[in-house]
Give the backbone structure.
Amino acid sequence: MSTKPTSDFLHIMQSRGFLQDCTDLAGLDEALKAGVVPGYIGFDATADSLHVGSMIQIMILRWLQQTGHKPIVLMGGGTTKIGDPSGKDESRQLMTPEMINGNIDGIKRVFEKFLTFGDGPTDAMMANNADWLDTLNYVEFLRDYGRHFTINRMLTFDSVRLRLDREQPLTFLEFNYMLLQAYDFMELNKRFGCGLQMGGSDQWGNIVNGIDLTRRINGNQVFGLTTPLLTKADGSKMGKSASGAIWLNEDRLSAYEFWQFWRNTLDADVGKFLKLFTELPLDECARLGALEGAEINDAKVALANAVTTLTHGADAASTAEATAREVFEKGGLGDDLPTVTLTPGEVTDGISVVQLLVRSGLSKSGKDAKRLIADGGAKLNDATISDAGLMVSHEAIAGTVKLSAGKKRHALVRF
């Protein structure tokens, strides 16, 4: 077939930059045109929210539904108890079932913003691999499925090989992860007719394993698709900022801080991010991405508004933009900025500006705050702070003060 697929879903995947590899592009293209294809992506429940590093996978599931297919969100209630070795240098801390279930509840709130759940043929569903993994009999599992995997082949997969190349320990517990992920695909195919697994390119080996096992055990043809691993133009990892992870739930990160993250996108990334993280038409993404000079800031605002609308709603996006204009253009305080509220007991004799920088999240530690002050990057009500020992009085906080770290990160402190 031509290199350009004709199904709506694969056309979007290719034209917007989501497609890295596919196990059988022609076969998947035909299956997508023939009827509804249920497709899944797995998410381990290691925190009570996902961050923007998962946004590509979330957008793929959204596009799958919008092009007439069924997205399956697989929560790793079982596999989270083990930990995926892909891209990791050390083992994860093991979590209790109660912690995992609490995290799943938090993550579900993310997907309810992006997908329509229900019982219809293209409605999204959420599954939990603990439903089948928790009841597995180990001896029966090895007898029935272990014979389909060879150590020789498993050692060639990037998730294992790269870890060993770095001479980092890989436990037998984690080595089993790829067997369980393959078993997930087989179970989802048997239970729900799932015909497609998607994930980042570091999951290629695990996906191929699942396809092979599903064909051997269920006798069904299934497909795998991967996306490029995304880094920013400066080489840094997507999903992180100077102040930490960019969470998708507002109780972990305010809508304003989320908006500001996208507003601060590097010029070279704007066009690419518009295609991946918004639903703006491709010609508009290209037009905005090609802007130069001061005009590129208009593209960044469009990006921030579009992604924040998807994640937090249109009202949150417009409020965040208005706050940013108040802070940056008019020099105001901006009522929607991240806010720290102090009790009377905390400021009886005043509070150090170093503590305020840490409490507000503008600095990770006292050492980090002192370094920021020494570099001239900390400001109090837009005046540069030169003394790391500065104490802020009760009278000052009884009003409101604005703290700044550099030109783009701000917070309010109120009594």
Q: What stands out?
A: The chain has a mean pLDDT of 85. Residues 51 and 248 are 5 Å apart (CA to CA). Residues 97-114 form the longest helix (18 residues). The chain has 19 helices and 15 strands.
